[in-house]
Amino acid sequence: MRVRKSADERKAEVITAALRLADEIGPDRVTTDTLASAVGLTQPGIFRHFPKKQDIWESVAEYIGEQMKKRWTSTERRRGDSPEERLRRLVLGQLRLIQTFPAIPSLLFSRELLVENVRLRNAFANLLTQFHQRLTNSVVEAQSTGYFRSDVEPGDVAYLLIGLVQGLAVRWSVNERRFSIVKEGERLFDLQLKGLRS
């Protein structure tokens, strides 16, 4: 006898399938029909859980956001680390998230995000703003404790670190993931920090 799954379990399955398919075939080619096949539902079954296709992508963004925030929170809870080490964990945590969910770069540059779904775009923009603020706070702390030079703008340093993550994510994707995004990120992070240390 088959066990009937709860609505929350079904929604989680659809979100996971959307992320997997976005990686395999690209977000713009993911249809409710391909999603239904992937999770063993009918197309009307998908719409019972998500009334509109854009609701699926917004739930995907919410799920990614939850994963990011968990990583940020665990980074900030660790006591006794230097601000530089906290920055390192924030940056490498983002790269590990991309490694875990490789569809993230293609989602960020998809038509679904850039043209068709303003709420999805705003959700990702909000996550980026939060990440920037956390990085900026760590840079300010590193400056106040003498780790970093005081003649650089903390917000600009945060943007450089975000650029490192985004640029590396694009290069990793274009190169068919033939290198470790985390190891390369660590190497480039150390290179950037050389110019910041006091």
In brief:
The chain contains ten helices and no strands. With about 200 residues, the chain is mainly alpha-helical.
The structure class reads: mainly alpha
User: If you compute it from the alpha carbons, what radius of gyration comes out, rounded to the nearest whole angstrom?
Assistant: 19 Å
Oligomer: single chain
Q: What share of the residues does DSSP label as strand, in percent?
A: under 5%
Largest β-sheet summary: none
State the helical fraction: over 70%
Number of helices: 10
Shape: elongated
What integer is the average pLDDT?
A: 90
Q: Enumerate the spans where pLDDT stays under 50 for 5 or more consecutive residues.
A: none
Q: H/E element string? A: HHHHHHHHHH
Number of beta-strand segments = 0
Distance between the termini: 67 Å
How would you characterize this protein structure?
It is built from 10 helices and no strands. The protein is an all-alpha fold.
Task: Break the fold down into its secondary structure elements and pairings.
Layout: H1 7-25, H2 32-39, H3 43-49, H4 53-77, H5 83-100, H6 103-108, H7 111-116, H8 118-144, H9 154-174, H10 181-194
Q: Which characteristics define this entry?
A:
mainly alpha, single chain, 198 residues
